[in-house]
Amino acid sequence: MKLNRRNLNIALASATLSSMLPGLVLAQDKKAPVLGFAQVGAESEWRTANTESIKSAAKASGVDLKFSDAQQKQENQIKAIRSYIAQKVDVIGFSPVVETGWDTVLMEAKAAGIPVVLTDRSVSVKDDSLYVTFMGSDFVEEGRKAGRWLVEKEKDNKGPVNIVELQGTVGSAPAIDRKKGFEEIIKSDPKFKIIRSQTGDFTRAKGKEVMEAFLKAEGKNINVLYAHNDDMAIGAIQAIEEAGMKPAQDIIIISVDGVKGAFEAMMAGKLNVTVECSPLLGPQLMSAVADIKAGKPLPKRILTKEGIFPMEVAKAEFPNRKY
Ligand code: AHR
Predict the structure, then answer these.
(1) Is residue 200 part of a domain?
(2) How many domains does the chain have?
(3) Which of its termini does the chain have fewer beta carbons within 10 Å around, N or C?
(4) Which amino acid residue places its CA nearest to atom 4 of ligand 1?
(5) Are residue 273 and residue 283 in the same domain, yes or no?
(6) Measured over all CA atoms, what is the biggest interatomic distance in the chain, rounded to whole angstroms?
(7) How far is CA 217 from CA 159, 160, 174, 194, 241, in A?
(8) Does 22 reside within a domain?
(9) Are residues 145 and 228 in the same domain?
């Protein structure tokens, strides 16, 4: 071929392009992984901290996060998951509002080749290959911690010890497991009796409303309140005060989460103890996304380490609290 200005230009252009190509391929490989996350809702201080942890960790690790809030409704979460499947995201993450009813949508994700990571709450499915890993707390153990604390606190009391229980969202893993763990411990002594147990849906407003009904029905008969989360306990504290009683004195109050609001209540002498449940799952979730993208295997269960904080240590611990 005779070299003229035109084909010289073409040759130069294609040389430049091919020298750029490896970079282009690399840039394609390095495309931010896309994570579709279907959140439960915004029902509690805990959940707000959990959402914030996920959003900030995604930003820090360069994950392209698509986020949806299901407003505590399973059908909304299923819709969100289906839309992530349609969008062909790299990974789907979610914190299931309830334990059951996930088989079909998770099979759809599997058929589409999209790995699923469970955070905070688990699912009850026939085939556990429908998700890659479950990261979060041991809710049964949280219930046991609450129970052990009460057994120790009341060891010199001959009883009866009448307990009212504010359960979390009906059918949710934390509500089922925290009840189970607590009952497992207190059943060792028949002086402990759960005289009323009802859901407060993990919210302050419902916690207050249900506690008002408990107080109306049982009055001074109530010795202990066991709330499955801090928000319901905080709502119940208002109800107890409005009924002219002293929270944490007339009624012992035990709750779960360890949010700042609970520490403030303990420092004000209104809450006896909170069992820790960490919402700070964002960084772990993002590293799971990176591992999945890199083809690295993940353990089926990633457990969060947690403590228990009685009111006596609240003031000293408060400055260390991150949520
Ligand atoms: O699944 C975790 C629970 O959900 C938290 O204890 C509660 O506060 C939240 O809403």
Answers:
(1) yes
(2) 2
(3) N
(4) 47
(5) no
(6) 107
(7) 20, 18, 26, 14, 16
(8) no
(9) yes
Q: Would you place residue 162 in the very low, low, confident or very high pLDDT band (cuts 50, 70, 90)?
A: very high
Question: Which residues form ligand 1's pocket by a CB distance below 6 Å?
Answer: 43-44, 46-47, 120-121, 174, 202, 229, 231, 256-257, 277
The Å distance, Cα 30 to ligand 1 centre, comes to 35
Write out the residue range of the structural domain in which residue 190 sits: 139-277
For 31-44, write each residue's pLDDT tens digit.
899 999 999 999 99
What is the rounded distance in angstroms from the CA atom of residue 317 to the CA atom of residue 320?
Answer: 6
- Do both 227 and 289 map to the same domain? no
Residues 163 and 48 in one domain: no
Instruction: Say how many Å lie between the CA of residue 46 and the centre of ligand 1.
Output: 6
Eight-class DSSP state of 247: B
- 124 part of a folded domain: yes
pLDDT of 6 = 53
List residues bridging with 39 in a β-sheet: 69
Residue 194: beta bridge partners?
163
Mean of pLDDT over the chain: 93
Tens-digit pLDDT profile for residues 222-240:
999 999 999 999 999 999 9
Q: Determine, yes or no, domain membership for 273.
A: yes
- pTM of the predicted protein model: 0.90
pLDDT at 4 (0 to 100): 52
Q: What is the CATH number of the domain that holds 130?
A: 3.40.50.2300
